[in-house]
């Protein structure tokens, strides 16, 4: 398991468990800190599309808000405590997953690029769940954990910051679509040059053994 696994397993289990429970049954949250709670759970009138874990109240700001800091569990739920709990455990968990990818690659004598590639979505999640709320001064500005909540976050972000006109965002979009295109082109080219090593009765994966010296594809095909 490794030390990364020791930390990853409890953090991701905690984040997942609280997310499921809160998505189903959490009471409305006073996200704006103005005593107008917003419901996000299934039992309070939402469906799979409209449901979400509503971000922690603006009244809490960036304060660390574990259960024991509230006067009661009801107060903790009203102020959106589950959101902060889920996000912080989730970010720690995925960071450990990335470290685990590196550790396993290292122990197998592989290069570290799997973990490096995974660092991109980790950075994106950290940006919307932690960096942006810090910049705005409140976890209430973080992205809600739901489908409609994600779209709402995108619309508000565009309205407040005009992100679509930012050159770095343009480069990011071009990079994502360009990367997808080049991955498809590269993968299809390499796959089409494979030398058949198996019959119809066995998996194509049997045609390669990790560490084998002979080639499995024809570079001039």
UniProtKB/TrEMBL annotation:
Pfam families: Photo_RC (PF00124)
Domain of life assignment: Eukaryota
GO biological process: photosynthetic electron transport in photosystem II; response to herbicide
Transmembrane parts of this sequence: 6-26, 47-68, 80-100, 112-135, 163-184
Gene Ontology cellular-component terms listed: chloroplast thylakoid membrane; photosystem II
Compartments where located: Membrane
Function: This is one of the two reaction center proteins of photosystem II.
Family note: Belongs to the reaction center PufL/M/PsbA/D family.
Protein name per the record: 32 kDa thylakoid membrane protein
Species of provenance: Sagittaria guayanensis
